[in-house]
Amino acid sequence: MVKIISSLQNPLIKNVILLSDKPRARKEQNRIVIEGQREIRLAAVSGFCITDLFFCPAMIKETDLRSLALHIEKPIELTEVTADVFNRMAYRKDSGGVVALAEPRRLQFNHLQLSKKPLLLVLETVEKPGNLGALLRTADAAGLDAVIICDPQTDIYNPNAIRSGIGCIFTMPVVTTTSGETINWLRAAGIRMYGTALTATHFYHETDFRQPAAIIMGAEATGLSDKWLDGADDLIKIPMRGKIDSMNVSASAAVVIFEAMRQRNFQ
Q1: CA pair distance 229, 50, nearest whole angstrom
Q2: What count of other Cβ atoms lies within 10 Å of the Cβ of residue 122?
Q3: For the segment 136-193, what is each residue's pLDDT rounded down to a tens digit?
Q4: Which of the chain's ends, N or C, has fewer CB atoms near its CB within 10 Å?
Q5: Edge-to-edge strands of the sheet including 202-203?
Q6: pLDDT tens digits, residue range 100-146?
Q7: What is the CA radius of gyration of the chain?
Q8: Nearest CA to 172 among 134, 207, 229?
Q9: CA dist list (Å): 177 to 49, 109, 185, 263
Q10: b/e string for 18-39 if b means 16 or more Cβ within 10 A?
């Protein structure tokens, strides 16, 4: 039976808002909030366990709701809400009239299934959810083997990261760990590490990315830490001809990643 909620004071609604706002609540309850038909569908198709679905009939067609439900294998709690309640729950205005709760996925290195010549993106101390989402979107577009996030300063399931990445957190294998563990794992796996740094002497387009490779990007404000500057096999940079000496981290990553893909004939 479908529950109907019209009160903003309902405990279920308050909890969805809490999960959206507080990473600690997401961790304690082992739940994340997913907004939008596309994002929920991507999560379901990728094997994420959807547990609850909240919908506003004034904002989503019944046929769209049924189509979405077909992708969800396990029985779920289905709740109808009014427009006022939905607008309070939703992180953005264009959520398509549906919000889901799901169990997060925490991958480790042994879960990754790498290709023969893997290409990975490694992010150190990423801070802004919007940047994380954009980076995941680039990684998905390039078909990278995985994204590794070292010492993250933001929750990878932050609603803004999910929104800005249009759900690519569900399509890309993402491992969160420490820089030290990542360096050790990459060395053991025979994957060459290319750190991006302003102090580098080699340009990215002069680098051979046709071998197993990991592209390492640091935080926008501080760049890579000494651990990566010392641990990387090579340091590379993008030629800068303007008045500033850096670009947005997601733009920089896209430039380097697609040069690597070009060298690999986009395979």
Answers
A1: 41
A2: 27
A3: 999 999 999 999 999 988 999 999 999 999 999 999 999 999 999 999 999 999 999 9
A4: N
A5: 174-177, 146-150, 119-124, 213-217, 192-196, 234-237, 202-203
A6: 999 999 999 999 999 999 999 999 988 889 999 999 999 999 999 99
A7: 20
A8: 134
A9: 23, 9, 11, 29
A10: ebbeeeeebeeeebbbbbbbeb
Domain boundaries, the chain: 3-102, 109-263
Which tokens sit at 176?
């969160």
- Tokens standing for 254? 């896209």
CATH of 3-102 given 3.30.1330.30, 3.40.50.720, 1.25.40.20, 3.40.50.300: 3.30.1330.30
Contacts of 253 (CB under 8 A, 6+ apart): 121, 135, 138, 215, 217
Q: How many Å apart are CA 88 and CA 252, to the nearest integer? A: 36
Fold match between 3-102 and 109-263?
Answer: no
Which amino acid is present at 259?
E
Distance (Å, whole) CA 236 – CA 199: 8
Local structure of residue 91 (DSSP, 8 states): S
Place of tokens 């893997």: 118
Whether residue 148 contacts residue 120, with contact meaning beta carbons closer than 8 Å, is answered with: yes
Reading the block at residue 245, the tokens are 């000496």
Q: Which of 91, 90, 85 is nearest to 5 (CA)?
A: 85
Closest to 53 (Cα-Cα) out of 38, 28, 34: 34
Q: Which residue has the tokens 């009239």?
A: 97
Cβ atoms of 81 and 6 closer than 8 Å: yes
Query: Do 229 and 235 form a contact (C-beta atoms < 8 A)?
Result: yes
List the CATH code of the domain at 109-263: 3.40.1280.10
